[in-house]
Amino acid sequence: MTTTTPEDVRRVACVGAGVIGGGWVAHFLARGYDVTAWDPAPDAEARLRRLVDAAWPALTRLGLAEGASQDRLTVAATLEEAVADAQFVQESAPEKLELKRDLLTRLDAAAPPGVVIASSTSGYPMTDMQTTAADPGRLVVGHPFNPPYLIPLVEVVGGERTTAEAVAWASRFYEVAGKSVITMKSEVPGFIANRLQEALWREALHMVANGEATVQEIDDSITEGPGLRWAFMGPMLTFALAGGEGGMAHMLDHFGPSLKSPWTRLEAPELDKDLYDAVVAGCDEAAAGRTIADLVAERDQGVIDVLRATGRLPRQAAGHAEPKGTM
């Protein structure tokens, strides 16, 4: 393992600069790190700098770490250059197993010995991605949520050949970098939060496909209903409150039989042309003329408002810079 402690990291490499990778770049810059990025796309640097520019107002409102600056971003010409002096590497390539496997093998060969390399994969287990790496022990999953520069959660888990030390180091580093970390005990396909999101997504698609609800009604049912509770209390404790003074035990006794009711259809519906068109048209209608940039700005402000209202602005761990800027 690297002799650099999570608290001493100053230079991060981000490989892959799309929506997720670019979001990581913005997050690390805002937390005061030097960031070197690489992406093979010919227009990668221009797209990345536009993404960081768009994220910076929200990050400024959220609070920047001492020394945070977009000027601390360097875009490298090669993967090897990007990770040559990295103290931590975040990989965010497209979700294609062979691509991930090959890229992690190349990163393992190029990064300094012992430096932890994390993948932003949203579904693949590290066990399947680390098979050809010379030093698989330092490869971990660091699964973020979009946008990584605002949503605190990161799910960390190793593969069968990942060392416990690498998992612990990565978890602590993310905490120092202002993230809320779940260190998973074992690999679960899709991890935790994505499994829950996917179940909700499948139910939503079924209702659209069957003409039972519109896209707008589905979104409103969450933002005006359980989503308000989920912002500060998860579904398990929320359901426990439904049991009154008896808590979860009474809730299960009272509502447990409904688990057999035909309320859910966990099998995914066929994504045929009719369903595809209905979902796309529904989203266009719900946007009501707002551009993607407009919606991103609205989303970012909404996340900041929720974080502020629930007292969960990103924390700065001991040993790292305190935030500055307006709150």
TrEMBL record:
Keywords: Cytoplasm, NAD, Oxidoreductase. The keyword Manganese does not apply. Residues 190-265 form the 3-hydroxyacyl-CoA dehydrogenase C-terminal domain. Residues 12-185 form the 3-hydroxyacyl-CoA dehydrogenase NAD binding domain. One of its GO terms (biological process) is fatty acid metabolic process. Pathway: Lipid metabolism; butanoate metabolism; Amine and polyamine metabolism; carnitine metabolism. NAD(+) binds at G16, A17, G18, V19, I20, G21. Gene3D superfamilies: N-(1-d-carboxylethyl)-l-norvaline Dehydrogenase, domain 2, NAD(P)-binding Rossmann-like Domain. One of its GO terms (cellular component) is cytoplasm. Coiled coil: none annotated. One of its GO terms (molecular function) is NAD+ binding. Pfam families: 3HCDH, 3HCDH_N. It catalyses: carnitine + NAD(+) = 3-dehydrocarnitine + NADH + H(+). Its EC number is 1.1.1.108. It is found in: Cytoplasm. Catalyzes the NAD(+)-dependent oxidation of L-carnitine to 3-dehydrocarnitine. HAMAP family: L_carnitine_dehydrog. Homodimer. Belongs to the 3-hydroxyacyl-CoA dehydrogenase family. L-carnitine dehydrogenase subfamily. This is L-carnitine dehydrogenase. It comes from Streptomyces alboflavus. The gene is lcdH.
